[in-house]
Design a protein that fits this description.
83% helix
Length: 71
């Protein structure tokens, strides 16, 4: 729902960030990583938003490494 609002406002970083979080909470880690990567590549957002997104992407990637290591 938030992603739709941000899309209408033209805020790509926040749109992709919210889509990533939704994917994560729907147990789709790969999709979440892809969306966070798109958020980082978005040309909007301030320093703090980009830092937050980069940090969360790193968390997702560490979690993915943990799960692939166990297989």
């Amino acid at each position: 729902m938030y992603a739709k609002v941000y899309a209408k406002q033209g805020e790509k970083l926040l749109q992709y960030e919210n889509l990533a979080e939704a994917a994560y909470y729907n147990f789709n880690l790969q999709e979440a990583i892809m969306r966070m990567d798109l958020a980082i590549k978005a040309n909007d957002g301030d320093f703090y938003e980009k830092s937050r997104v980069e940090s969360r992407l790193k968390q997702f990637q560490r979690e993915q490494q943990f799960h692939t290591r166990d297989k």
